[in-house]
Design goal:
The chain is an alpha/beta fold. The chain contains 17 helices and seven strands. The protein has a five-stranded parallel β-sheet, with helices on both faces.
């Protein structure tokens, strides 16, 4: 089940006695948990009807005792088990939980309790305990949002704050999604404040305010190289290195982007339309727009030579063939001016 379906179920008052929350997106997980708590727990009685324990530090018997405790002045209570490692392939750090008592409980769970297991990461769907929760309750994967789902999340988040956003601005923001929705939400809050009375958040606002990650810096770096702006390119290189990015990671991102530009430019030469190129390469819309724009500023020969220089520098970095900062600065200058 997806988290949106869970939210709909909660709104309708359709609640399961057992849930397994798993996946990489902690923010969505916490939001759904808050929604459940507000639906189930009476105001002022949370202290009596809510227990939270660490799954790798308590026994299964303790979890079951909490789940069988009667609610106080409420129809239900909630028990949250963090780090429920027995749903994964990993072993617990301290207390080895016996799964058999949990399996027995899950076969006939207490309906006056909402037992929620949480796993930040992957769950092993082959395990008996996972399948049993699927039978008697609900398993919800909180995967990282991409594509239309991410666009919708951003749009709704801003709409609730009286804002709209340009599609190009969403595409730019989506490059932060791999750092988690917590990071993206913080940037959106900054944009809401920065935009003031203006109801529309533009790409220019985003580029001005949003904290840039390495991938975004690489796009700017390639723009500077294409425009033969050596000083600006060196400044962007320094910025990425100061941010703590390893030279090898920068090389990898530069190689990836130059290869995409080369492939797109070659396909244009073969008569492919921009739409066909997007379908073939299957990259993020913002990345694709950068690829097509940057491709107009390079010849095929320049792109091939640039890739050769990148690979030469990669070999030198791997073999400790010189100071890494000096090698990267020389690389940028060669890419700019040949």
């Amino acid at each position: 089940m997806e988290y949106t379906s869970l939210l709909n179920s909660i709104n309708r008052g359709v609640l399961a006695p057992v849930y397994l929350f798993y996946g990489a997106e902690k923010l969505l997980m916490d939001q759904c948990l808050e929604k459940l708590k507000s639906k189930i727990l009476p105001d002022g009685l949370e202290a009596f009807n809510l227990d939270k324990v660490e799954g790798d530090k308590v026994t299964s018997r303790h979890i079951i005792d909490l789940a069988n405790t009667l609610p106080v002045l409420s129809e239900k209570r909630i028990v949250i088990v963090e780090n429920a490692y027995y749903f994964t392939t990993q072993k617990g750090n301290e207390t080895k939980v016996e799964e058999e008592p949990l399996l027995n409980y899950l076969a006939n769970p207490n309906t006056s309790c909402c037992l929620i297991f949480k796993v930040l990461g992957k769950a092993d769907k082959r395990k008996k305990i996972f399948k049993l929760v699927q039978e008697v309750g609900q398993t919800i994967e909180f995967a990282s949002l991409t594509g239309e789902k991410l666009d919708r999340w951003v749009t709704i988040f801003l709409k609730e704050r009286g804002k709209r956003i340009e599609s190009e601005a969403i595409n730019y923001l989506a490059l932060l999604a791999n750092e988690g929705l917590n990071v993206l939400q913080n940037e959106l809050e900054k944009l809401v404040l920065y935009s003031g009375a203006n109801p529309l958040i533009t790409l220019a606002m985003v580029q001005e305010i949003v904290t840039k990650n390495t991938e975004i810096n690489v796009f700017s770096l390639i723009d500077s190289i294409a425009n033969k702006e050596g000083k600006k390119a060196l400044e962007l290189l320094q910025t990425s290195l100061v941010m703590g990015e390893a030279p090898m990671k920068l090389i990898y991102l530069l190689v990836r982007q130059f290869r995409l530009i080369l492939m797109a430019k070659d396909m244009i030469g073969q008569g492919y339309s921009e739409k066909q190129i997007k379908e073939k390469l299957q990259v993020h819309p913002y990345v694709m727009s950068k690829v097509l724009r940057q491709g107009r500023k390079f010849t095929l020969e320049e792109l091939v030579v640039s890739l050769e220089k990148l690979l030469e520098t990669e070999v030198l970095l791997k073999s400790s063939g010189g100071d890494s900062l000096e090698l990267m600065e020389n690389l940028v200058m060669e890419l700019c001016y040949g």
